[in-house]
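so my prof wants the structure for this chain in the tokens format not the other one, which i didnt know existed until like an hour ago. anyway here's the sequence
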Amino acid sequence: MPRGARYVGIAAESSRAGAACPTFTLTETFGYTFGMDVNNTGAPAAHLHRIQEVAAETGLTPRSIRYYEEMGLLAPAARSEGAYRLYDADDLERLRFIAGLRNDAGFSLAEIGQLLEDEHARQRNRERFQATSDPAERRAVLTDALDRVERQISTLERKRERLGSMISDAERRRVHLRGHLDDVLAGRDPHHDPHHGNEPGQ
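here's what i got, hopefully its the right format
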């Protein structure tokens, strides 16, 4: 099977789960890059890893890896004669990408799935646009691409708003705690502040 073909199949069969072929670049937004070539370039066969090795490499649990597969976000590169899942370097990179968005940026699996699908669609739309000179077809491609970008922007703006609110709350707590610390250093008793609703130490 050509490298990456299994992700194309997943995208076609599980679009609601957000699976996609990882022929995308999200470096500009998230700092992660996929460089998988969906065409077989004749490269040497990749080394395949058992799920326990993948878990050790990525810091994920085997249960999480299986769950991502169930959600349609991942497809093992192969299975052994004993039906054990086998993963290649592209699978590991994809898992690191998913884990980064999940753990570092706080994205839900549904949001991650949609981002993966949108990035796959971006590659697909580019190919469709280049393959036709029909104005109506090109207009449809560009409209779909624009709709997907608008959705990505909306998702990221909501994430930014939530993070901004969390930062503001943390900054207020910092000011409150510094006030208590100043009281302690000055030999004053830090009293409960009814405006903050927090006892000392909170």
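also thought this was worth mentioning. Confidence is low (pLDDT under 50) at residues 1-6, 8-44.
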